[in-house]
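Morning run. Coffee first, then this:
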Amino acid sequence: MMGEEGKKLAGQSVVSLTLGILGICSWVVPFAGFILGIIAIALGISGESLIRKSGGTLKGEGFVWTGLILGIVSVVLAVLVLWVSGSMLGFLPQWRLLPH
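And here it is:
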């Protein structure tokens, strides 16, 4: 079994985490948060696959999973901001018209 010292950090895991953090920080600009979140999710999935296929030579699963979760949260926040702002501007159904 190889120790953590001998493993290289998967680059996609770091990028996924970074984009997930940026997506969360940019939820105020919904399209930016949405796009960054989608890219973070895609790179997280790709990075997880790469780490699994590496046979133990790559590390970064924690970064990958954190990037995936932050990417998902970023996408959800962006959709909610778009929905609320769209309903306030009259593009989408009003909140009061939603079923209770």
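The CA atoms of residues 6 and 27 lie 37 Å apart. Good start to the day.
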